[in-house]
Specification:
By secondary structure, the protein is of the alpha+beta class. It contains seven helices and twelve strands. The chain has helices at residues 25-34, 84-101, 147-150, 156-160, 166-187, 194-200, 213-218, and strands at 15-22, 41-48, 66-73, 106-108, 112-115, 118-128, 131-139, 207-212, 232-238, 244-247, 253-256, 261-265. Bound molecules: biotin.
Length: 266
């Protein structure tokens, strides 16, 4: 993979580091942040030896079939609102992949991206006192996943039978992220994009289970969680804070914060 030259014209990209092999681009971006690197430092890895997922899971990225990168930003946003940048990223990636590959992905709130019922993109946001690192892993040209993952994960190749230029897709994603991030910084809320985000939301207007994160953490495969005994709610989409608005059986509205809960369609 050779980085596209137009990457260097994207306004919020101020520094680019490119590695053939790295433990985790998120770790490197956090290290840069702590050493005082500039806002907009981008770390791209062709392969990762210790890719990290959410909730302490690992992210399989030892081959060069995917796109693995992290961007470190220093937004002037209250710490409790930094998680909104993750939703901005999910929308930016959805829009770029859909236009670049002519597919229809859906977002599993808050930030996983699915295609054909399986996970295509993972986003891991890690925040410090004066920075946020957004790590993105996209399964692009993977031909097959191991037994454990094959029911859960997919790639653009497996869904469309075409191979894609990773550098061009990276360029497209960062351009789109730059544009949405600039808009987000004007208001620090998501009202400018909630409608568009909701259009990608896989569970919009559907009944869902809300699963306490404690329960989800115990399972390496969250789809095995026993939902017996859990109540269902109806999903109405996100609000300007990125909270998921849910209506319970009594008609009462609940505003669910992403840190506490994960969800599953009924
Ligand atoms: C998840 O699905 O749980 C999040 C996966 C995030 C993976 C990306 S790949 C680039 C960056 N570096 C990491 O170690 N993780 C993120």
């Amino acid at each position: 993979m050779k980085l596209s030259s137009s990457l260097f014209n994207i306004p919020f990209v101020n520094n680019v580091l490119f590695y053939d092999t790295i433990d985790s681009t998120n770790n490197k971006a956090k290290e840069l942040a702590k050493r005082g690197s500039v806002d907009g430092s981008l770390v791209v890895g062709i392969k990762q030896t210790a890719g990290k997922g959410r909730l302490g899971r690992s992210f399989d990225s030892q081959d060069d079939d995917g796109l693995y990168f992290s961007i470190m930003l220093r937004p002037d946003v209250a710490t409790e609102h930094l998680s909104r940048v993750t939703l901005v990223t999910a929308l930016a990636i959805s829009k770029s992949i859909n236009s670049f590959c002519n597919v229809r992905t859906s977002i599993k709130w808050p930030n996983d991206i699915y295609l054909g019922g399986k996970k295509l993109v993972g986003i891991l946001t890690e925040a410090g006192p004066d920075y946020v690192v957004i790590g993105i892993g996209v399964n692009i040209n993977t031909k097959r996943f191991n037994n454990e993952l094959s029911d859960l994960a997919t790639s653009l190749y497996l869904e469309t039978h075409k191979e894609y230029d990773k550098a061009k897709l990276l360029d497209r994603i960062l351009q789109q992220l730059n544009d949405l991030y600039e808009m987000f910084l004007k208001s620090n809320d998501l009202s400018f994009m909630s409608g568009e985000y909701n259009n990608y939301l896989g569970v919009l207007n559907k009944d869902i289970y809300l699963i306490p994160q404690q329960l989800s953490l115990k399972m390496s495969n969250p789809s095995l969680i026993d939902t017996n005994g859990l109540d269902t709610v109806h999903c109405l989409g996100i609000n300007e804070n990125g909270d998921l608005i849910c209506r319970d059986k009594l008609g009462e509205l609940h505003y669910v914060n992403s840190g506490e809960i994960s969800l599953r369609p009924v």
